[in-house]
Design brief:
The protein has 183 residues and is of the alpha/beta class. Helix content is 42%, strand content 21%. The longest helix has 24 residues. It starts with 6 loop residues before the first strand and ends with a helix. The model has no long low-confidence stretch (mean pLDDT 94).
Length: 183
């Protein structure tokens, strides 16, 4: 099967000072580029300086974010678990747009004391409302086992095969959904 190149955005969902999501996002980016011929872009929401909903003067930042999301056929969300859910910065980045998410696929990579499982589950609910198809396979990093001193990202080797499966699923779903956006 001849696959046209897809554009996959890797969204780093935390904007907190001292965050570790950028380390996870870079690992995802490097592994994805090594495993696939498709195009991957790091989309660090911290770089977009998005205002919270309702903030005045928000149009330029939202327009730039919207254009970045529109270019993507699928997404890999990298999210921490904060207070049993995903961060407000990621929720805001998702909520400021609507149609730009429709009929695209997503994979979720989470991290936290319980692997970020609760954050991933909450994010799936929100994405479903926006007509984003999330893939079944998840990669969950433990703060205790995949980070040295809970800060320096040192993923265990057991995660790579899971990520490979997740990436295959994401690519398949992104390809399958693409015709819906072209009609």
């Amino acid at each position: 099967m001849d696959h046209k190149q897809l554009n996959i955005g890797i969204i780093i969902g935390s904007t907190r000072e001292g965050r570790i999501g950028d380390q996870v996002g870079r690992w995802v980016y490097e592994q994805a580029r090594r495993l696939s011929q498709h195009h991957f872009t790091l989309l660090d929401i911290k770089d977009f300086n998005l205002p919270f909903l309702g903030s005045p003067g928000s149009e330029p930042a939202i327009k730039i974010w919207d254009e970045a999301v529109q270019k993507c056929d699928g997404f890999i969300f990298v999210t921490p678990e904060y207070n049993h859910s995903f961060p407000a910065s990621l929720k805001n980045a998702v909520d400021v747009l609507k149609e730009s998410w429709h009929d695209k696929a997503a994979a979720i990579i989470s991290y936290g004391s319980m692997g970020g499982a609760r954050a991933a589950e909450h994010l799936k609910q929100v994405l479903g409302e926006l007509r984003v198809a999330d893939v079944r396979t998840q990669v969950l990093f433990s703060l205790f086992d995949d980070f040295e001193k809970m800060y320096d990202f040192r993923p265990r080797a057991l995660h790579l095969p899971t990520f490979e499966i997740q990436l295959e699923q994401l690519i398949s779903w992104s390809e399958a959904l693409k015709p819906l956006r072209q009609s």
